[in-house]
Amino acid sequence: MSIFFCRECGGETTKWSGKCPFCGAWNTLAEDTRVTGRKRNAGTAAKPGEAVKADKPQPLDQITFRQESRIQTGWMEFDGTLGGGIVPGMVVLIGGEPGVGKSTLMLQVGNILSGKDKRTLYISGEESKEQIRLRSNRLQCNSGNLYLYCETVLEEILTTIREFQPGLLIIDSVQSVYSETLESAPGSISQLRECTAQLTRLAKSSNLPVFLIGHVTKDGTVAGPKIIEHMVDTVLYFEGDDRNQFKILRAAKNRFGSTNEIGIFEMRAEGVVELKNPSQYFISSDEAKPGTALGCIVEGSRAFLAEVQALVSPAGYGYSQRVALGLDHKKLAVLVAIIEKNLSLNLNQSDVFINISGGLRINDPALDMTIIAAILSSYQNQAFPEGTLFIGEVGLNGYVKPVSQLDKRLKEAEKLGYRNIYISRKNRIKAGSTLRKLTHISQIKS
Hints:
This protein is of the alpha/beta class and about 450 residues long. It has 3 domains: about 1-35; about 70-275, P-loop containing nucleotide triphosphate hydrolases (Rossmann fold, 3-Layer(aba) Sandwich); about 280-445, Ribosomal Protein S5, domain 2, CATH 3.30.230. About 25% of the residues lie in helices and about 25% in strands. It is built from 10 helices and 21 strands. The strands form 5 sheets. It has a 9-stranded mixed sheet. A 4-stranded mixed sheet has the order 13-14-16-15. A hairpin with a 2-residue loop joins strand 13 (about 290-300) and strand 14 (about 300-315). The radius of gyration is 26 Å and the shape is globular.
């Protein structure tokens, strides 16, 4: 029978409409076929009575559990993003733009764990054995416990896994795997749902950690309905411009840890390398220059410095430009309007360009005062003294507001030697030799 799935929320309906009746999104319903009454494979069928035993109601305080020991890769950035390591039986979905380094990252992870007596099975449905072998030589992934299997049929993959009994499973990619019991094409909604469900069931029944590499849409989300993300335990996004060496591993969902954690990596010729001290990489120079200001942002549970570069120049065309790299352009328009209104500066005839050094994309409001300071520095063509840092959110009236986790930000700044830090006067921290409290952006002096 024909059925329509919503790509955004995973809802299903028997009729097509331009608007999803569940989440209200437009043009997200895709037609597919649902196979009813099909037989399960003998290897995946549940034993009679299993569901009845598992579904008996029990008092919550009488349910016992055993603490699972996490598998450590030794990469603090990777383990921290997962919440402390890999939990046996967890299913992780990793998405990212083409060429960002998903396959490289997971091949290196598999090589590390295979060196710790974990038989790792890397299943590829998109590349040949020769291609992966060439990459493994470049990355020096030559562990004897790292096995490669090129297959796309789900039934063959499940049979091989049961016979091989690996300690870690990596599938690249989940969109290339298909089940022969369904008539739809690989990568379709029904195939993704069925293949993900079968692999998840296998992982839970055998305590096998499974990593699924997935394609992403134009919006940057994993391709397929949202129900795929609901089926797995953890959803990670490997972010970063393919022309930029710095990459961020960000958790969008994690049943075994916090979603506030990120991992920062650098892409080199020998593969992906973790950055243990990212602050020193995102600052281009210690020399103070006009149009440059430093701030401190928090991503997850960690704080690191970010450099904002601004360029204010006379408009060469009829209309002034507002260009932001690494920042929402609407945010830049708001901050420019705040400057014009509260400082009586006329920027209508000036182009304003903002760049976040290192290729970062930042949404932290604590960088508001830093961006304004960089614009003022470029406009006045005067540099701030060395060791100056700005931490504060700015309201539409120009007043500087306090930000969260200030202690963590100050600790990171003072560790790197910054002794002239501007914060909001409303922060409940005593002003000392390193702190300068501001009430309004008019007090920013270069």
